[in-house]
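Margin note from the TA: students keep mixing up input and output lines. Inputs are the sequences; the output is the structure of the whole complex. Example:
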Amino acid sequence: MVILAVSWNFMASTGLISLGHSAFWGLGSYTSMLLVNSWSISFGTSVFAAILAGAAAGALLAVATGRLRGIYFAVATIAYTEALRVAAMMLPDITGGSTGVYLNQSARLSQEFLYSAAIVGAVASVTLVYLLMKTRLRYAMRAMLNNESAAQMLGVNPLLYRTFVSAVAGGVAALAGVLNTWYTGYLSPEIAFSLHQSVLAQIATIIGGVHTQVGPIIGAFVILGLSEITRISLTEFEGTSQLIYGLVLVSFILFLPGGIFGAMRNRWLSWAIGAKIRPLPTLKAQSSVIVSAKRERPPAS
Amino acid sequence: MKVKLRACIAGALALSTAAGAANAADTIQIGAPLELSGRFVAFGAAGKRGAEMALETFKGEVNGKKVEFLFRDIQSDPQAAVASINELTEQTKVKYIFGPIASVMFAAVIPAWRQQKPVWIGHGSVTTRTEEEVGGERRFFHTYPYAYHYHQTMSAGLKSIIGSGKKIVIVYSDDAYGRTSLPFARQFYKEAGFEIAGEELVRQGAADYNPILTKIRRLRPEALVTLVQTSDLVTLAKQIKIAGINIPYLVDGLDVLLEEWQKAAGDAQEGWIGLSGYIHGMERPASKDRPDIFPSLSDWEKRFRDKYQVEPTYLDAGAYSAASLLLMALEKAGDDPDKVVEELEKLNTETLVGPGRFTKTSTGGTVHQAFESLMIAQRQNGKSIILYPPEVKTGEIKARTE
Amino acid sequence: MILQLLIDSALLGGLYALLALGLVLSFGVTNILNFAHGEAIMLGAYGAFWAFTLWGIDPLLSIPIMLVVGFGAGFVCFRYVIERSLDAPHLNQILLTFGIGLILQNAAVLAWTGDLRSANPSYSMAAINLAEVFIPVGRLLTFTVAAALAAILYMWLTRTEYGRASRAIAQNERAAKLMGIDTRFVYSLVFAISIAVAAATGAALSSITTITPFIGFHLLVKAFAIMVLGGAGSISGAVLGGVLLGLLETTVAYYVPEGSGWAEGVAFVALFLFLLIRPQGLIGTRVHG
Amino acid sequence: MTSSPLFQIEHLNAGYGESIVLSDVSLDVQQGEIVSLLGPNGAGKTTTMMAITGLLSAYGGTIRLDGHPITDKPAHKRVDLGVALSPEGRQVFPELNVEENLLLGSFASKARASRPRNLTRIYDLFPRLAERKKQLAGLMSGGEQQMLAIGRALMSEPRLLLLDEPSLGLSPLITELVYDTIPVIAAEGISILLVEQNTEAALAVSNRAYVLSHGRIVAAGKAEDLRDSAVLRDAFFGGALSGAAQ
């Protein structure tokens, strides 16, 4: 989850809103599962293969959607995922179809090993993104978030960067998928390509704080905690758990649009400077970006 | 990753709630991961009603020991279902599991169940993937017919009612139910001597079946066998009616005998043939050895209606019966999973939905199978007329004419 | 066969166009992609279903009622909730409306359980048979409703003061403000109309498909596809996109083995390819007729 | 001195976020007067326009029309009260036709009643527009779009017309064509506040002018007095640069 949210946020940092993250997630999951079942390769190799598949899918998406921005890109990613889901449903000979596919019992690993692998994976993906953001890439991405054509003038090749960013995000999301698959040992098109995963990653990021490094991590913990609490304690009436979940989500967005991390940073800042600053720095920095991004549409005919 | 986090959080939570609620020592806890929201909420809700009511029959205890169902909302999401099983078995350490119901959820939790293997009353899942994966497990008790039970009974029944040699077309959906059913439907109908003139795939949730119906019309089948979800059968039945295709016999599984399907399908339900272990409005006498638990069907239905203000369904009656079987075994064995397994194996009582006795399935895939006996009925003038087996027959089959 | 194919495509296309109409309007003007649009359709369907079941009101008669109720609900919802996120990033808007959808969906479960419903007025089972082809009456009526609503919206956008103002806002919000247009009011108005159309769509659907609290999302994804195909913000684009998608799916279902299963996938692949060639859609991206 | 002016700004402060663009700007426009606001790129001219129209809310100061403060009124209310802007870069609605653009100009309820009369008036003022009624605005030339933007602003029957850089991107010939109409409009009793970088053209039609530099008014006076003033040159080229530029 942390991995997925980090991956999503990384992509969003360039203004690419993905609603199809489960495409990478699912593709990674299927790649590792099917390879293991057919050729009994090792866990490590399967992770490697899945990351490659995810990265390839990410790159393909970026190249294919070259000209799309904002909402159009988001809708294209939905289409990408749906097409993959239908393919997985309709090719039962390969994927097991809607009845799903189980990981070979012999290939299963201990829970402890997977826990450690997950932690290593999470740390590695956070570090990778952190390091990448330290490089020149960061400025290119900032520039693209604000204005792609301006970025182009600065000598940034948007397509190249987009492809790179999507590939990294795709690989990281695939990693998350693999870990989850090894953990649950079962996969079906519904699980692999559900929009729920993509949205969950977003919710985590938003709740934690978008475009920040720490945000997705905080968000992932909060969202899972919340979902667990509602699922376990609200079983009296059918539907309540998700109802409450929705309510919390809506109030978060309305009252804490900068996320928990944003709010914390603001509070800390205002405390540090003596509560004198009127405009909230993080929110503002963000909203000015948004104003410029909001009204954009693809070139009209 | 996600699941792991979930498990940690859930563990912490479960500890805090469980500590106050009950000492594991004097309470028997039964984990009940059910679809209490999301797409399959109707399944989960029925499962929960059944379990609750069974517990009420036992006054909340067996042999003076308190029993409780730990309900978990798996939100019709396989990931959440896995997380729930993990939380229940790894953290809360329940020894018994009741649920989930939908095939997809069921399939997803199998690997997670394998970690600890609590005694599992599996009241749900018609797909044979389940049978292949866990059917042979000694701690797994399946209390719901598999898809092939439907086709086995239906093909045999139809053969005895309308005779074999008829031309049929099979419509199956691309979901788990359709996909796993198809080979069995093919096999059993062939064995019963029917000619399969065509097989058509439909998409789950589709709005338009006209292209399929146009193809079927040209095949001129004498019977149409559908392997689709209930909601799709509403749309499909309506469109068949609208298209005015002259097919004498329309055949489906359980859906036809569900009250919600009947209401939704309206006039389009006329003539449909389905099957179930429980047909609304039928009578079944009280169990001889345990009338306290399994009274006559009408008495039980009255109790159910008084409690929930809704009409019971096959799932309600089945879940009640399945949960009761578990409680009966607990009554005899005490809180020891191995003994409970032995007692479950020994059970032999009449229930609301047929004989409560665990036997091997005909395929041999599942060692503990109950409630696989089904009755065939046809919707005639808004009523279910039982056609098969002959001993419970209440009327004759009618061919549709358009 | 070909004729039947064309009729089936047109009827399905009409249904699809209806799904997308409201969405296109609200996205075109407010630039908010409403993820709760499917739930609005779902509630409209329930509204019509209950009106039919409890009071015997024909689902067709429910359409105007649903238009009014939907309008009111949409207006209030926009004014008190969604408006707050007007200047927020797309992302927040998506999640906000997604959250609203989740709330509505589960509120519907609480209110009416997850049981399947479908209204069955007398004509819903009727069909017109002409030689080799047949036309289901219920769907023909839906098609008519789609055509009528599309025409009304078109007229509204091109011939009325506020319709023109909506198009102006879609093209240049700041300049629209300079014209003395209360943009926030027009946003609420447009959003309310889009929800009204959604509710009416639900009412039209109530007799031809199965209603559950969960139908919304599937419908929404379809509507997205149509919107992008037609060009977000264009009423005629929505109609064209709907009919095109209907034709594509029906053709695949007719001629490809296991076609019904592939139809949707083919549609999404087509959409994806189409986006690459013509990201602005068939008609273009700004709101016009 | 004289009776209170039609339009008046007192001590206006405005900006974006934390950056203050305008500080302590004061100016006034009398009934029927043409006043220019001159200054180089980045001086804050457009920001002033935004603050007057209400697209940007002021941090401090007062904006008065007819002596009544309008500082807290929302943008759409100000149009109704009689302030209309022909914005920088025209900002016509590209996918609406000329007539629809003009009709939108009179969206404000007060002006809607006299719509036919105003349309005729504007077609008289800009015959080009009359010829292209059904043309999509986005497909017209820059000069035509500028005429449309001015015409559109006039449709609301403003008492104060704000013109932001009407010569931007136009050839001298077309600029002249556009500028020719400014005195005609003023002659109808409409006050005009004209923002320009093209000081030459602006001063030629103005009665008075203000010079804005780094968000402050650095000079004010009659148009002819300012034409060759050092203050104006300084404002445009900056103190140090003015020497180097010589």
